[in-house]
Amino acid sequence: MKQVPSKCVILAVLPILFMISACAGYGKLSSLPRNETDDLLADLLAQTDRYVVHYHGNSENIVSGVLFDPKDDGKHILPEGMLWKEVSDPETIASIIIAIQESYLPGYLPRLFSINAPRGESYGYLFTGWSYLVIRPLDEQTLRVYGLKGPPEYENVYPGGH
Hints:
The chain is an alpha+beta fold. The protein is 30% helix and 33% strand.
């Protein structure tokens, strides 16, 4: 019986290990159960002063997501990109949530997600109808997020949010 040289085994296994380690560096969105979303969203809106809040969109009326980063947990979420804007007024945040809920595009189903680091710890929340966000750790306490699609109103005309 012919033996496979160890170099061949190493060369075959090395790309697989590289792919696994590359994917391990990303965080992920975890969809919260729909029956918990309304109550948790109401809690977030009632306590906006406890969060650093950003919306993703062209204006407060044309949005694709709202990010809630707890202020006092020792962790931070840094949104990257021109469409992310910080907002602190509770009434404005509530109107942004309503704008997201009223957006219509097939496949855009607003729900609340937990933003999780690669090891699974929650850093905050994202309310959006999209299910994709790039989440990369910068250090032990900080995640950078980007790659959220543009507002649904623009996706009809400009796929990818451009």
